[in-house]
Amino acid sequence: MASSKPANPTVLIVGAGIFGTSTAYHLALSEPNPANVTLLDRAPFPLPPASDAQNHPLGASADINKIVRADYSVPFYMSLAYEAIDAWSSLPVIKSFFHRTGWVSLDEKGSDLAQRIRKNFKESGREDPTKDMTFEEVRESWGGLLREADFDGYGSAYWNPGAGWAEADRAMGAMLKEAVDKGVKYIQGEVVELILHEHEWRGVKGVRLADGKIVEADNVVLATGPWTSLTLSTTEDKLKMEKSARIERQVKAAGVCVAHYALNAKEKEKFDKIPVVVYGSDGWLAISLALASEWRSNISQSKHFHTQALFATRDLLSEDVLFWNTKGKKSRRMLG
Fold it and tell me: Phi and psi for 316 in degrees, rounded to 5?
C-alpha cells in the first residue's frame, strides 16, 4: 500500500547560508502556508553583519562582498551566472546590494583561460560584453589608480563592464528577513544528528540539536556546505556505510584566504570607482563601498582543504599592498 503524502507538507531547511536562505525565500513566495517552512542555523536572527567577529555566521556566503560575474570557462556555469545576474538586477529584495562596477581580468602568460571564457560568451547566444585592454590602458584608466601595478608574468587583460560585486551579508540578511516576514519559522540551534524514520528506507524525518531538542518535518533539506560531512557522519556510521560511499569521498570543500584593509575617508573616496581586479589565479581585489571602510583581497592559492596561509601587510604611506607566502617570499605588488 502506497504511503499517503500530506496535503501541506512541512519543510525543514538546515543551514541559513545563501542556498538555505534562498530556498526558504522562494518557498515563502510559492507555498500557500509559509509557516510550514522552518529554517535552522547556528547563527542568531537577524543575521549579524560580516564585520561582527564574535557572532559572524559561519556560512561562506555571509561575507562582506562577493563577485558577481558570468565569466566562466564552463558554459553551464555561465548560464547559471546569467540567471543570477538577472535576479540581482531585478529582485527588489536584493537589487540595491548589487554594484555593477565591471571587472578587469588579467591572464597569466601561457594560459588560455581568458580565451575559453570569451569563446563561451560568443557561443552563448548573448552579446559578448568583453573587450581587450592593453596594460597601458589598464594603468591609465580609473584615474590612474593601477598606474604602478605590477603585470610581470601576465600576458593579456580584458574588461567586462557587466560584472561587479554584491554586498553579500546585507543581501542575504534582507532575503532572510523577507522570508521570515512572510511566515517562515527560524530556529537557532546546532544539529548533532539526523533522525531517521523507523524504516530507514523512508529517509530522514528530522534532526536532533545540541540541546537535545528534536525538530521534525516531512521534508528535510541539508544546505550545510562544508559542514555536510560532519552533519552526516553519525548517520553514515549508523547505516554502516563504506568509506567510499560517504559524502566526504564524493565532494570536497574549497577554501581561500581573504584579507580586509580598513580605509580612511580619503582613501575610500580615491578608490570609489575602481572595478574588481582579477589577478589570474593569484586572487582579486574589490572595494566594499557598503562599509565605506573596507578593501578586500581574495588570495586564491588553495586547493580543497590544503589552504595555504598567506600574510598581508599594508604600508598606508606608499599605498602598496604586499603579500608574502608562508615561506616568507614576497608575492606581488598589486596597487600603485
Answer: -65, -20
Q: Which among 171, 187, 165 has a CA at the least distance from the CA of 45?
A: 187
Contact predicate 224/14, CB 8 Å: yes
| Of 38 and 126, the one with more pLDDT | 38
Query: Do β-strands 37-41 and 11-14 pair in parallel, antiparallel, or remain unpaired?
Result: parallel
Instruction: Dump pLDDT digits (tens) for 39-88.
Output: 999 988 988 777 666 666 667 777 788 889 999 999 999 999 999 999 99
Closest CA to 298 of 278, 315, 317: 278
Q: Extract the C-alpha cell encoding 277.
A: 581586479
Give CA–CA dist 166/279, Å, rounded: 19
- Residue 24, SS3 per DSSP: helix
What is the Cα–Cα distance from 235 to 221, expressed in whole angstroms?
Answer: 15
> What are the φ and ψ backbone dihedral angles of 238, each rounded to 5 degrees?
-60, -35
| Reported confidence tier of residue 296, pLDDT bands at 50, 70, 90 | low
Contact 133, 159 (CB under 8 A): yes
Residue with cell 589552504: 307
Half-sphere exposure for 221 (CA within 13 Å, toward CB): 20
- Residues forming beta bridges with residue 314, ordered by sequence position: 321
- The CB density around residue 194, as the number of other CB atoms within 10 Å, is 21
